[in-house]
Amino acid sequence: MIKISNLFKSFAQTRGGVLDKQVLTDISLTINKGETVSIIGPSGSGKSTLLRMINRLEAPTAGSIFIDDVELTEKTAAELVKKTGMVFQLFNLFENMTLLENIAYAPQVVLKKTESEAKELAANLLQTVGLSGQVNQLPSQLSGGQKQRAGIARALAMNPQIMLFDEVTSALDPEMVKEVLNVIKRLAHAGMTIILVTHEMGFAREISDRIIFMDHGKIIADQPAAKFFEEQKNPRIQDFLSKVL
Amino acid sequence: MITPFISTLFSVAHGIPLTLTYSLVPLLFGFILGTVLGLVKVSGPRPVRWLVNLYVSIFRGTPLLVQLMIVAYGFPGLLGLKISAFTAGIIAFSCNSAAYVCEVVRAGIESVDKGQHEASAALSIPYWMSMKDIILPQAFKRVLPALVSEAINLVKESAIISMLPGITDITRQAQIISMQNYSFFEPMLAAACCYYVLTSVLNLIGHALEVRLQQGPKS
């Protein structure tokens, strides 16, 4: 379970912090085990920053994040981050490694699996995401959709309890989007806790238990998916949805 | 005309082993020390980074010849040490090369996409493991041409070692023959030919390495 309370984040723009850019303002939120939650909203609303703070790629300016009742701090980060798997918009596969090495590396050095165990795990995961024919290829030899499925396999190799997806289809050609969304859908159906930052409204509606709408660093709505899309009364959200749906 | 030149060339070429010693040994030490300094410059604590900056600015901001003289004659005189010409040459060239390699490695590390660091952090990969297996291999691939340039510079600048007594590298050999024959042109031309062959071979090796790295691991 993830519990976020009174979270603030600002980025320094000048020395002294007079003109700091406030990115997140007083975010409080709970995400239960097995839930699929989509965070949506306009660009620059702080969605990705919030997601990146859950696995400590950004540290909070104020407030706290608890994962399974343990506060995420600099000290606890090493252990807690292992519970989360992150998939990035621009894939971030290790460019100097083959797909198999990309996926086997972290289980080997972090989870201390033997080389053969790690490679077997990687081969199985690549098969699950439909990439068994590409195990020895470099990321530069793959399509965007293939890279992103490999990115998901790499995160899954660490056996995380929570998967974080940061606009994972935004950099893909339209025909590649579906293959990636299908993999996420399978994970959601298997009961994985999923937090998804996305611009794919149809997909968010289909797989999410809850939708969180953010604007200017604040949570404007946190509602069950059906209610959010079908009974929306907030004019700001209605306006947003009318433009993207 | 041709035959005497070839015999001069062979005599000058006797200096090649020493020239190679004074370029390849400092290349190795300079590479190791420079990589360590580059890593410190990217991720070390601030006071240590300042020290590295000072080191780099001193070695890049003063002539190699002066550095060699300080190591060969300055320190021994000051501290009462005895340093052989060989040791002085290796120390001065290695320290000088390390300063240049440090900057090249730093630039290489900083040119690797931030996403590679973030993906490592998200997978809980320890910083130094990620540096060793993910960031540095990509950085070296990018800066290989600059490192080959540094190797070529070392071969050419090793000529300065001929200033120390008793070291018969290519340049010194050419000087000896010039003085014996009272003619500078042929021996110096022969020396130029020797250096050119050495630097061309380095260039070829660098190019072959680049092609190999571009191809990446076997598929």
Structural write-up:
The complex is a heterodimer of chains A (245) and B (219). Chain A has 245 residues and is α/β, with parallel strands linked by helices. Chain A has 9 helices and 10 strands. In chain A, strand 7 (162-166), helix 6 (174-189) and strand 8 (193-197) form a beta-alpha-beta unit. The relative contact order of chain A is 0.17. With 219 residues, chain B is mainly alpha-helical. The longest helix of chain B is centred in the middle third of the chain and has 31 residues, at 127-157. The model of chain B has no long low-confidence stretch (mean pLDDT 92). The A-B interface holds A 55-57, 78, 81-82, 84-86, 88, 90-98, 101, 105-106, 109-110, 136-138, 140-141, 154-155, 158 and B 113, 115-116, 118-119, 121-126, 129, 133-134, 137-138, 141, 216-219.
Short description:
The complex is a heterodimer of chains A (245) and B (219). Chain A is α/β, with parallel strands linked by helices.
Q: How large is the share of residues in beta strands of chain A?
A: 15-25%
Query: Major beta sheet of chain A, specifics?
Result: 6 strands, mixed
Number of E strands of chain B: 0
**Percent helix range of chain B:** over 70%
Task: Write down the overall mean pLDDT of chain B.
Answer: 92
Overall geometry of chain A comes to globular
Please give the CATH architecture of chain B: Orthogonal Bundle
Quaternary structure type: heterodimer
**Helix/strand class of chain B:** mainly alpha
CATH topology term of chain A: Rossmann fold
Q: Which fold name fills CATH's third level, the topology of chain B?
A: MetI-like fold
The pair of chains with the biggest contact is: A-B, 32 and 21 residues
Rg from alpha-carbon coordinates of chain A: 18 Å
Q: Can you tell me the CATH architecture of chain A?
A: 3-Layer(aba) Sandwich
Order of helices and strands of chain A: EEEHEEHEHHHEHEHEEHH
Q: Which series of helices and strands of chain B comes N to C?
A: HHHHHHHHH
Please give the CATH class of chain B.
Answer: Mainly Alpha
How many angstroms does the end-to-end distance of chain B come to? 55 Å
Proportion of residues in helical segments of chain A: 25-40%
